[in-house]
Input
Amino acid sequence: MTDSVVAPEIMDSQASSGTVRDYVALLKPRVMSLVVFSGVAGMVVAPGHLHPVLALVAVLCIALASGAAGAINMWYDRDIDAMMDRTARRPIPQGLIPAEEALAFGVILTIVSVTLMGLALNWVAAGLLALASGFYIFIYTMWLKRRTPQNIVIGGAAGAFPPMIGWAAVTGDVSVASIVLFALIFFWTPPHFWALAIFRKLDYQHAGVPMLPVVAGEAETKKQMLIYTLILMPLAISPYFLGIGGLTYLVGSTILGLAFVALAVQVLRSSDHKPAKRMFAFSILYLFLLLAILIGEHLAV
Amino acid sequence: MSDQPNTGPVRKHGADTDVHRRQRGKNLAMLAALLAFIVIIYVVAMVRMGGGGAS
Output
C-alpha cells in the first residue's frame, strides 16, 4: 500500500480536486481502446451498410458505456483498489475524485450512451449495450468478483459483448456469427486475466479477491489457462467457416492460436512468472491482431 | 474599533488559484461535452430524417 492512499471515509467526504485527466482515467482508457476495437470489428464484418455518422455515434456509445462501467467499477471497488499496487494510483484511492462523484459520472454516462445508441442506431444494440454494462457492474463487480474464483470466467461475458453490439448496430439483430465473436472474447478472457493474476497474486491475496491462483494455486490456474487456449483455437478459426473471415484470417488465426497455446504450455512448465507476463502481453496482441485481420480483410474488399 | 484578532477565513491565494484553475478546466470540458452532444443529436436527426440509416 502506498503512503498516498487515503482512507475510504476521507475519499467519500472530500471535495473534488481532480482534473479533467483524472476523470478520463476513471473511464479506463486502455480497456476502452480494446472494447472499441472489438466493437468496430463487429460493425465492419456485419452484413449491411451504416452511414458513417451513425457508425461514429455507435463507436462513441460503446466507448462511453465501457468507460462509464469502468467508473462505476472504480466507485464500488475503491476499498480494494486502495490495497493493491496495480490500482492504488486510481483517482478515487488517491483522493482526487470523491467516490459519489465517480458514481454519478458513471451512471449519467451509461444512461446517455444507451439512450443515444437506441435513438441513433436501434434498440437491439442499445439493449445489448445496457446488458453488457449491467453485467459488468452487477454480475461481475458487485456479485462475483469478491466471491468466486470463476469471477472473470462468468464476468468475462461483459467484455465479450462489444462485437455483438457493433454487429447489432448495423443489422439490428443477433446472429450465429456475432455469437461466435462473443464466444471468442469470452474464452480469451480467462487465460488473459489469469496470466495477470499469476504475477499479481500477492496483490489479489492482500485485497481478498479470490482469483484462481490465490484460491486453487498456480499449477491449477496454469492447467486451466491451457484448456481455455485449446478451446479458443478452433473457435478463433471458425469465423472463416462462417464466411466472415477470409483465407488471411484462417492462416493468421491458426498461427496466432498455435502461438497462444505454445505460450500457455511454457507458462505451465515454468516455475517463475516471466512466461505469465509474456502471455499476458501476448494475449492483448493476439486479440488485437485477430480483430485487425478481420477488419483489414473486410476493408480491403 | 476592536483589538481582537481577525479570526475570519484566511484566503490562500495560491490554493484558490489552483482550485479555480482545475474547476475552470472541468467547466470547460463539461461545456465542450454538452455542445458536442447537441451537435451529435442534430447531425443524427438530419441523417435519420434523410433516410441514411442502416441498409
About this structure: Chain B touches chain A through 15 residues (CB under 8 Å). The helical segments of chain B are 13-49. Residues 11 and 51 of chain B are 59 Å apart (CA to CA).
